[in-house]
Amino acid sequence: MDTGNGAHTGQVILGRLSHHDDCQITLPSVYDFHPELNGMVDSNTPSCSMEEALASQELPINRAIANVAMQLIWGLLRNGGLNWQGAYLDITKGSQIPINIA
Predict the structure, then answer these.
(1) What is the side-by-side strand order in the sheet with 9-13?
(2) Which residues pair with 2 in a beta bridge?
(3) Residue 73: φ, ψ to 5°
(4) What are phi and psi of 76, to 5 degrees?
(5) Where is 68: in which H helix or E strand?
(6) For the residues of 19-30, what is the DSSP string, one character each?
(7) Are 13 and 1 in contact (CB under 8 A)?
(8) pLDDT tens digits for 65-84?
(9) Which residues contact 60 (CB under 8 A, 6 or more apart)?
(10) CB burial of residue 55 (10 Å; 0-12, 13-18, 19+)
(11) CA gap 80, 14 in Å, rounded
């Protein structure tokens, strides 16, 4: 599961990294949706203050991403399967667009 976000947008994508074996599951990964992310280096520069953190990122974005991830995991555990594999979020527009399993 990939969870990533920017200042007010983000994505959660549940997928399978390797498709080169005999497994029947072919769930696209984040790299299938966004090949430009392959090899990207995360910038884990810590913020020195809450003010700096809030200046670069909307406060509820991390919680919104975590809630979608939790919905996916809960649905998988409770129901034994899913009909969606993630979502794109934009908290300034109030939108959540599901990524349906084809």
Answers:
(1) 2-5, 9-13, 84-90, 95-100
(2) 13
(3) -65, -45
(4) -65, -45
(5) helix 61-79
(6) -SSS-S-----H
(7) yes
(8) 999 999 999 999 999 999 99
(9) 91
(10) exposed
(11) 15
Rg (CA), the chain: 15
Contact assessment for residue 10 and residue 65, using Cβ atoms and an 8 Å cutoff: yes
89: β partners = 10, 96
Q: What are the angstrom distances between the C-alpha of 79 and each of 50, 65, 72, 73, 74?
A: 39, 21, 10, 10, 8
C-alpha angle 67-44-93 in degrees, rounded to nearest 5 = 40
Instruction: Output b/e per residue, 19-50; b: 16+ Cβ within 10 A.
Output: eeeeeeeebbbbeebeeeeeeeeeeeeeeeee
Question: Amino acid letter at 3?
Answer: T
What is the block-wise mean pLDDT of the chain (102 residues), using blocks of 10 residues? 94 84 78 85 63 79 96 96 96 97 86
Tokens of 16: 């399978």
